[in-house]
User: Fold these one by one.
Assistant:
Number 1:
Amino acid sequence: MAGWRDLRNNVVVKFPGEAAERVARTLLQAGPSTTAELAESLGMSPAGVRRHLGSLIEEGLVVAHERAPYGPSPKRGRGRPGSVYSLTPTGRAAFDQAYDDLALAALRFLSRECGPDAVAAFAHERARELAATVSGVEDGASPGAVAEALTRAGYAAEVQPLGLVSLQLCQHNCPVVDAAREFPILCDAETEELGRVMGRHVTRLATLAHGDEVCTAVIANADTNTTRGKVSA
């Protein structure tokens, strides 16, 4: 079985098989999904997906909801509504735990030896480096380009319409979630820098670091005073 080492507790936790890991990785990349959506993405039968979801739930890696924990509910067909599945914090940690532990140890050392100003300087430098990977920054990066850059960096991000005057940026994963929980300046600097490269106001609503199901931020439309109709990403 595939697995990862929890460095803080010095134990190895395993996925219940490679197929179950594929299901979990799809949830990481796509966010909360129904059995039908997972089956379509993976090219598996719904029955097979349900079997692997059951194993992941038993291991505490996945949780079932009556509806999506954020955003619009998936469209339902006839019959009894299906559940929506998402990774638990333990499930998300399976994909990046070692990197997060290292980042947290380094930030604690920096804070202890050099003080909080040094941590803030590091957070802003890291955010600038992340923003530099976004395409189209010369003319103001689009939210879609920002989501693509975040996804390449391991955040599994996407943009969703939010009415006619704004968009919602969703990040299904955070490679440094434990570090951000202890040092929220990481989230603040990232939000500020992404707003700068887009030339738009960005408001953070929820974060994985605070125990939410997903990181979400509202991005103001480029021209909220004159735009009518569909908002593009």
Note: The domain at 3-93 is CATH 1.10.10.10 (Arc Repressor Mutant, subunit A).
Number 2:
Amino acid sequence: MTTWRLYRYRNRDGSSKDWAVRTNPGGSITTRWGKTADRLPGVSTRNGVRQFDIEKKKQAKGYVFVAEVDIDSEGKVFFAGHVMPEPPLPAMGALYWQIECRADPDTGLALASEIRRLLDVMQALTENRANPEQTWPGWQQLLDLSLNAESFVQSG
């Protein structure tokens, strides 16, 4: 596997698409693309373009750098240095996270949109469960903070 630079474009409806790029040993550039998923099926290799230039063009279109990742020959994406477990790890009882947001207002709106989408997904997953005490009450506060034009730090 080789290391790629992964970028993501978020649509206003909450969906997203990914694009990854790498420079090959001979100087050619290979890109992969597709809907955000664990595999990027599209692939193209070309000469006569610099990785820096092509990344700047994608950023100008609204793509945001996500991370350096490994992608195998079939297009399967792995975060760099992360070996996918076989079988999957068992579910944990809790998750702790922290968000430090110093973004422009448009990025804040994109974050709010993603939070709203995730809340809808969580609600759909838990509708038939009787564990309301596991619902974190800070989601609305996080949503409100992301809609403001100010920087914030939030954890949960």
Note: Residues 6 and 20 are 4 Å apart (CA to CA).
